[in-house]
Fold this sequence. Notes:
Blueprint: H1 2-26, H2 38-53, H3 58-65, H4 72-79, H5 82-85, H6 88-93, H7 98-111, H8 113-122, H9 126-137, E1 146-147, H10 148-158, H11 162-177, E2 187-188, H12 201-207, H13 223-236, E3 246-250, E4 265-266, H14 267-272, E5 276-277, E6 291-295, E7 304-307, H15 309-317, H16 321-334, H17 353-365, H18 379-391, H19 402-412, H20 432-444, H21 458-470, H22 481-490
Antiparallel strand pairs: 1-2, 3-5, 3-7, 4-6, 6-7
Amino acid sequence: MARALLMAVLAATAIACNSNFVRAQTVQAPTFATSGNADFDGWRDDFAARAVAQGRDPAVLRRLLSGISPDPSIVTLDQQQPEFVSPVWDYVNNRVTDRRIAAGQAMKASMGSTLTQIQQRYGVDADIVLGIWALESNLGQAPLNYTAPEALATLAYEGRRRAQFENYLLALCQMVERGLATPDELRSSWAGAMGQPQFMPDVYLTLAVDWDGDGKRDIWTNNADVAASIANYLQNKGWRAGEPVFDEVRLPTGFDFSLADGSTRSVSDWEGLGVRRVDGGAWSVTDRTLQSQLFLPAGANGPALLLHPNFAVIRRYNNSDRYALVVALLARAFEGRGGLVASWPTQVGSLNRDQTLELQTLLNSLGYNSGTPDGLFGSGTRRAVRAFQTDQHLAADGFPTADLLNQVRARAGVSVDPPASSSSEGPRALDARGVRELQRLLKRMGYRLGAADGSIGPATRTAIRSFQRRRHMDVTGRATSDVLEQARRAAR
Length: 492
């Protein structure tokens, strides 16, 4: 009897496995009309086949990916994010505005007890929630000009972070398969971030909240769902209720700026090094135990901040110190508190993307590892700058300025820009059209530099330097009017 039962179970299992095998064999990847871009079509078809193999619905994939093509403007925006490109004072001042503060205070008043209840439920300061909401979508007023499928597909195809954006596309498929959103509702930013809180699809699946219990996690039009979703996200990432985000501080004379290198110390230890609150007030016993970092957002001549653990939680929302600082400053303003006491050192200037790219390339050539040159000033470049400054007996604040770039140029043996006050006009920098012409001329002469796209990357700079050496010019690697004129003559 037992043997017969066992045989029946094995037979049923074999039938089920065979049925699943047949069903898997019959599920076909969707087919698509051509987008007009053969490379994109190849990636899309391959992705769709892999997605089906992972269990995604072919019909949903067809709906999401049909009729789209890569959008070059999305790639451009991805490479010019203001968190990394604009000077810190411009980034802050352009976002902590009277209009945005008034809008946040109005939203706070209109939502009233709902925000209070959300704060009580998740332990996250409602003003911080409003700060993120205001920065992400102007409290719902910013238009969502893209669709998530097109944005995510473009960035996945572009390839810099392919695996990451393919995973976002898979999560987007799950949202539609589970009836959480229809394809028509998937309005997003250029990066595929959706709705008012700008959630990526995987975040939506795990952390979006249906606060009012209507059966939908509506982060597009429901303010309560939006606020609760942001609060839930921050709680999930480790928000510590009742703790401050940062304190502005004063540093003692002769302070070692290299201590602002990401190392963590207790507030009590910082106090022992002479660091004091800018308002002269004393830290509480509890605050003295906080493990905090010293941050110099504009170098030795600008504000100094002690960043507490909740600052790092805001960075989990957007991995940018500038972003987290703006959120915290907006939250203070919504509470009726003032901003930073110290002024921004606008007089020292800041580097643009091309200058940052040159700085990274030169630092690498001198043995200071800034990572792959990309024109974006991140933590790797900051460490390289600080190491260079230390070796040159400069204030090691890790902040890039035109003067610093000139010192790096001098050490690398390339020409130095004249002081800004010089009356000499000199060669002018080329705009994108001029750069494209220069790239075409250099390619015609046999220099290898990739596409003539008007963007000055490492290959273009290397080609310019080679051309300058051959023409007995100052070797700068910069695209200027005199280099273009020489290239025109040489290419005749």
